[in-house]
Structure formats: structure tokens, C-alpha cells
Amino acid sequence: MLEELAASKFGFWVVAWIIALADSTFLLEPGKFVFTVSRTTRPELRASSAPFTVMNRELVFAIYSVPFRLFLITSISAPNQTLQKTFRRLSNINRRERRAWSLLLVSAGAMALLVAGPIISAVWGVQYSIILLLPTLYALGIAASVLIWNERRRFGLSNAMAVKISAELMLCPVCLINVFKRIALAQGWQESDRTEQAQTALRTDRRTDGNLPKDILETIVVEAIYKHRFLRDIAELRHADSRRVAESDGSVGLARTAYIKAMIDVHARQTVLSTLLGVLGYVPTMPAD
User: Fold this and answer.
1) Of 267, 266, 194, 274, which Cα lies nearest the Cα of 33?
2) What percentage of the chain reaches a pLDDT higher than 90?
């Protein structure tokens, strides 16, 4: 199969896309979620009501969830902040993203080359597509590296991290389409919280749950499922309310804030439910409502 892929017209570009897609993935720990900031300084939550988990962590594809966007990772256990401090931080993130327009153009250019590669291969052959596009792709990688180094302070990157990201982009320029994901994960924007303690407690709970009788554990899982459905219904109501409320100014409205909080609760409950189902080993039959 690998020989056939290497000999095909699209083999080189298929491998390039596989590398780019694999590079765009990252894992979210339980209780954490991603959001971006709109042009009007509104937080835009990126949370799935039914996330795909790997080793009890949510698998996220940045190229799909937050394409060409700087994002923030925070958690449900992060301490509450004043409205003024929250708005200041959102404005800071928004300002950083606006200043990254040149890096956005370079990243979008790399995406265009990856899309054009298979098309040119189909028309003129893979050799011609490589000769035509690969030097340009490496040139974009070098340009992005220079931009990152020059703007490292604005992005909140240390010298060592800026050099690391720059070297990765020059060695593998197909990863350029995920440059914002690299910056976001390296910026140190993740909130300091009690995640490690929570994970330790969760592991302890899982060892304890393993000694419980199946009927008791199944009762706990059924209650968790009902709780998840209840929170999901609340989130849907909050979403409907936020759509009905017309917000004329650029502030974060109360209806929108309530919807975001409801989705955070759903996301956290889904993580707990996935863990309990993993301990139980099967999906229990739900009693009739």
C-alpha cells in the first residue's frame, strides 16, 4: 500500500496533508475548554456537547475547531475575575490577533499551496507540482519564522520558544497552517488551576469504583447520564435565549454569558460521564422516563 501511495500522483500531497492534520491535533484535559475572541471582544466558546475522548482527554483538531485563530485554554476551576479584568484580558487577546494579520496571510498562503498541490499533480504530474510549489512553501516557512521572531514579545513567547517554533516551521513548512495553534499553546495563557489535584482525585476515584459492585456503579452512571441530559437541555434553552436577545453594543450580554456557562457545565459533565462509562465498561440500559 505504501509503495502504491508513493508511486501515485497524489502520494506526496496525501502525506503532506496527513502530517498537517496530525499536527493540528491536541488533547484537552478534563474540565478544560477552548474559546476565541470575536472582533467585538465577545468570547466564542468552542465546546462539543459530545466530545471524542482519547485517554480521558478530548481530541481537538485546531484546523477544524479554531482555523487560523489564536485561542485561549482555560478551565472550569479557574478563579472568577472581575468584569473589568475579564474585559481587559479579552481585549488583549483580540489586539494580539489583529496584529497577526501578516502571519495569517502567510498561513493562508501555505493552505492554498497544499490545496493547489493535488490539483497541479492531477494535471501536470507530481514532479512538476513539487518543483513549482515546494520552494514557495519553504519560503513561506522562512517568512513565518522571521515574523514570529520579530513579534515574539507581542505574542508572549520566550526567545527559546520562538526559536523552537521557527525551526519547526522551516524544517516542516506544511505545519505552517497550524502556526496559530503552536503560538496559542506556547503563550502560557493557560490558567493556573487545580487540574493536577483534580486528576489525582479522579484516578483515586476510579480505583475505588473498580471495587464497587456493578449494580451500584451502574446506578451512579445512570444518574450521571440523567444529569448530563439535564445540563444539555439547559444549554439548549440558554442558546435559544441568547439568539432571541438583541445585543446592540459590543459587550458580552447576560444571555450570551449564561449560554457559555451552561456549555461549560455540559462539557465538564461529559468528561465525568466518559470516565464513569470507561470504569463500568458498557452503556447501561436507561429506565423508562
Assistant:
1) 267
2) 22
CB 269 within 8 A of CB 234: no
Q: For the chain, how are helix, strand and coil distributed in percent, rounded to 5?
A: 65, 10, 25
pTM for the whole thing?
0.59
Smallest CA-to-CA distance from 178 within 22, 12, 1, 13 is with 22
DSSP state of 50: S
Q: How far apart are CA 212 and CA 208, in angstroms?
A: 7
Q: What is the pLDDT of residue 93?
A: 75
For the stretch 82-121, pLDDT in tens is: 566 667 777 777 777 788 889 999 999 999 999 999 999 9
Task: For CA atoms 120, 125, 130, 132, give the dihedral sign.
Answer: negative
For 134, residues 6+ apart whose C-beta sits below 8 A from its C-beta are: none
Buried (b) or exposed (e) across 232-244, using 16+ Cβ within 10 A? bebbeebbebbee
Q: Round the average pLDDT of the chain to a whole number and report it.
A: 78
Distance CA 95, CA 12 (A): 38
State the helix-helix crossing angle for 126-150 and 101-124, rounded to 10 degrees. 170
Contact 175, 168 (CB under 8 A): yes
- Cα separation values, 169 from 70, 84, 118, Å: 17, 37, 21
What is the per-residue pLDDT for 219?
Answer: 84
